[in-house]
Design a protein that fits this description.
Layout: H1 3-18, H2 28-39, H3 44-74
Length: about 90
Amino acid sequence: MNRKSILVLLGFFSLFILNAGDVFAQCAMCSLNAENSVANGSTLGKGLNDGIMFLLGLPYLIALVVGVLWYKKFRKKSVKKVSPFGEQTL
């Protein structure tokens, strides 16, 4: 992949992330407890939802960091070595 296609993919990925709406990722039992706590005036449900979303996103963040480090380490470098003394024949 060239640099332009990587930037385009990164741009689309960023747009998807920035346009994401509220997501309620809770199991049935957690959802019931969160609804009951919100009905009683507590903000425990929002904190529970935020914690679940954090746990959901963490593996993707780790994979992204490993991918970037791997890319930087193993990409081909087209460096032409030039002698400061010019061409020499043996």
